[in-house]
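FW: tagging you since you asked about this chain on Friday. Here's the raw sequence from the shared folder, copied in full. Didn't touch anything.
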Amino acid sequence: MPKKSVKKEIKKEKHPLAGFILSIFAFIFSCVPVIGLALSILGIIFSSIGLKSGKRGFSIAGLIISIFSIIIALIVLFAVILILAIGWNVLMGAYID
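HL: got it, structure written out here
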């Protein structure tokens, strides 16, 4: 009987660390919006699950870094879309004139 509770305890303690590691990778890859957003969302999910365990420090750090990474990835995504839209208009304007 005690082995099951120990296994559940070990499984719960893996989520905060996984969320923290995913959020670090999300921050590194936040310049690539699709990868950064996907890793940030996974980091938020794992960190949120990990808040219920004993290692709340990793969970809170993972949540903060993941949210910051999402903001950076959205800014980069918006900039890329804006640059492509302006570039497309300039390119098409050059052919029309």
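FW: Helices lie at 2-28, 33-50, 56-96.
HL: agreed, and The chain is about 90% helix and 0% strand.
FW: great, closing this out.
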